[in-house]
Each structure stands twice: as structure tokens, then as C-alpha cells.
């Protein structure tokens, strides 16, 4: 590895040149904002903790700015790209800018929300500039699909970063916070300015770092727990006794289940941890309606 030439990274001129070659007009529908600053992609990779032993999944590599920075660490990269034009060009970009690392790169042409497997060695890390309109579903889908993931860093809209990293009791604690906590310990890892993107987005961006945690030990399914989470936050201002009534069969059954789980029936979802939701789900399945 030491005698390999490091990748060249993309700057503003290279990104615009590639975009011009492809007659590219970034679409809001796919959340396409390309990073044009080499220092930013290096910072993302540094904050991710990715090293040469990692097998990295990257979602939405676009023109390859972040991909090249990940390859710079010596890691193996599997990129998932839905855009046919971008997917067609990317392998050639890697060959041109990182010829000595090209054998460590592979591409899956697919929608990350719909992939059912990732070929090759089991992925250990997820690093991505996620499309902002589907960032949470994509993150949760890949965490579920790839249990070998140990850590990762994603760039998302600032408000989404706040929600993912929020703790119980926070005003922005909600469904993304709880569901992400099933898989990982999550924290905010900084902010990214708008001027490092082309085109510049009209929202601020945030970095979210996560490390794997073992899912709660329980006989109930994740799907059942997540159904309780969804119900608890569907009407944020209502007490759990009321919002869980449809799942329990009656308000009385909901109250019995909550009491059995050690939860105040008048509590609200935003005060509960993922483990609290697991206990509630277990109780709901035991208490007759």
C-alpha cells in the first residue's frame, strides 16, 4: 500500500468539468448537491473513523468527491447510485483520479431504499452524503439490512441531524431518534456550510456519527416495537394511554400494559427510551384487550 499513489480529489473546477461533460443539471428530486471542497470530504472521512481495514458502503456517490476521499484511507468502497448518468461515469472517474485504488471500488446501480443485499465482503462502515429527502429511511434500511456495520458518518439536513441525535426529553426527539437508537449510539459530529456544495443548497447540513449497539434483547419483533413508536408520536401532545388505545384494543388495556411496563400512562412518547418502548410492546402483547 505504501508505494501506491494517493487519489487526486475533486475541487470546484473538476466537479464543474465533469458536470459539463455529462450535461448535468442537479435535481432537487434526488437531492443532488455535489461537494466541491476537498477539505470537507477529508473532514467527513476523518470524523467517520474509517481506516484501511474497513469495507465502506457509500450511498449517492454522485461525481465521486467523497468516494475518492474514502479510498484515500485504503478502505474498500461499495457505492450505491440510482442515477444512471452518474453511475455510468463514476467507475471511469475512479480509474482516472485513483488508478491505484480502483480495484478497491465497486458500484451497485440501484435505489438504496430497495437494495436487498450488498455483494462482496461484509460492510463494516457507512459513510454518505445522503439525499436529504430520503435520508432517514435510507439510513434505517441499511442499518437493518447490514448488521455487520460497526460505525458510520452521514451528512444530512441539519434539522434531521438534530432529530437523529436527540435524546429523550428533547423537543426534537421523535421517531427517527428512537428507531436509530435500536441499532446505534448516535451523536452530532459538526456542521457543514452551504458554500462547499454545487449547487449550494437552501438548507444547512449536519454530520451524524453513529456506532453499532446490540439491539434490545426481547422476544417481540422490531416491527412491533416500531409500530408502537409510530403510534406514540403520531399525536405528540396526547398521553400514551390514549395514543396506544388502537394497538391495545381499549384505553383500559393500554393503561394496564403501560403500568405493567413501569411507564406512567399519562407520559408522552418524547420522554421514553427505546428500551421503554420494548417493555411497552412486550406488555401490550401480554395484556388482554
From TrEMBL:
Gene3D superfamilies registered for this protein in UniProt: Ribosomal RNA adenine dimethylase-like, domain 2 (1.10.8.100), Vaccinia Virus protein VP39 (3.40.50.150)
Lipoprotein among keywords: no
InterPro entries, alphabetized: KsgA/Erm, rRNA_Ade_diMease-like_C, rRNA_Ade_Mease_Trfase_CS, rRNA_Ade_methylase_Trfase_N, rRNA_adenine_dimethylase, SAM-dependent_MTases_sf
Cellular component GO terms held in the UniProt record: cytosol
Enzyme Commission number(s) of this protein: 2.1.1.182
Catalytic reactions of this protein: adenosine(1518)/adenosine(1519) in 16S rRNA + 4 S-adenosyl-L-methionine = N(6)-dimethyladenosine(1518)/N(6)-dimethyladenosine(1519) in 16S rRNA + 4 S-adenosyl-L-homocysteine + 4 H(+)
Domain of life: Bacteria
PROSITE patterns on file: RRNA_A_DIMETH, SAM_RNA_A_N6_MT
Localization per Swiss-Prot or TrEMBL: Cytoplasm
Ranges where the Ribosomal RNA adenine methylase transferase N-terminal domain occurs: 40-214
Keyword line: Cytoplasm, Methyltransferase, RNA-binding, rRNA processing, S-adenosyl-L-methionine, Transferase
This protein's record includes keyword Calcium: no
Record-listed S-adenosyl-L-methionine binding positions: 33, 35, 60, 81, 111, 129
GO molecular function, one term: RNA binding
Family according to the record: Belongs to the class I-like SAM-binding methyltransferase superfamily. rRNA adenine N(6)-methyltransferase family. RsmA subfamily.
PANTHER family, A to Z: DIMETHYLADENOSINE TRANSFERASE (PTHR11727), DIMETHYLADENOSINE TRANSFERASE-RELATED (PTHR11727:SF7)
Annotated function: Specifically dimethylates two adjacent adenosines (A1518 and A1519) in the loop of a conserved hairpin near the 3'-end of 16S rRNA in the 30S particle. May play a critical role in biogenesis of 30S subunits.
Name of the protein described by the UniProt record: Ribosomal RNA small subunit methyltransferase A
Gene: rsmA
Amino acid at each position: 500500500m505504501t508505494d501506491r499513489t494517493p487519489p487526486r480529489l475533486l475541487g470546484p473546477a473538476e466537479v464543474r468539468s465533469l458536470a459539463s461533460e455529462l450535461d448535468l443539471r442537479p435535481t432537487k428530486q434526488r437531492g443532488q448537491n455535489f461537494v466541491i471542497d476537498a477539505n470537507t470530504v477529508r473532514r467527513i472521512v476523518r470524523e467517520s473513523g474509517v481506516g484501511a481495514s474497513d469495507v465502506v458502503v457509500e450511498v449517492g456517490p454522485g461525481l465521486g468527491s467523497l468516494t475518492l476521499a474514502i479510498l484515500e484511507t485504503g478502505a474498500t468502497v461499495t457505492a450505491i447510485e440510482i442515477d444512471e448518468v452518474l453511475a455510468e461515469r463514476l467507475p471511469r472517474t475512479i480509474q482516472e483520479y485513483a488508478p491505484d485504488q480502483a480495484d478497491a471500488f465497486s458500484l451497485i446501480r440501484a435505489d438504496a431504499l430497495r437494495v436487498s443485499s450488498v455483494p462482496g465482503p461484509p460492510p463494516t462502515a457507512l459513510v454518505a452524503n445522503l439525499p436529504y429527502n430520503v435520508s432517514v429511511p435510507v439510513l434505517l434500511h441499511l442499518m437493518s439490512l447490514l448488521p455487520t456495520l460497526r460505525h458510520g458518518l452521514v451528512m444530512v439536513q441539519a434539522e434531521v441531524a438534530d432529530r437523529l441525535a436527540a435524546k429523550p426529553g428533547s423537543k426534537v426527539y421523535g421517531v427517527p431518534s428512537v428507531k436509530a437508537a435500536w441499532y446505534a449510539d448516535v451523536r452530532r459530529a459538526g456542521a457543514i456550510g452551504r458554500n462547499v456544495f454545487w449547487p449550494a443548497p437552501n438548507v444547512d447540513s449536519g454530520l451524524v456519527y453513529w456506532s453499532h449497539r446490540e439491539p434490545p434483547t426481547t422476544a417481540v419483533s422490531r416491527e412491533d416495537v416500531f409500530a408502537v413508536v409510530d403510534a406514540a408520536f403520531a399525536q405528540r401532545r396526547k398521553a400514551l394511554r390514549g395514543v396506544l388505545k388502537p394497538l391495545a384494543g381499549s384505553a383500559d388495556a393500554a393503561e394496564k400494559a403501560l403500568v405493567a411496563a413501569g411507564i406512567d400512562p399519562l407520559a408522552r412518547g418524547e420522554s421514553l427510551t427505546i428500551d421503554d418502548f420494548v417493555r411497552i410492546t412486550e406488555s401490550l402483547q401480554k395484556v388482554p384487550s
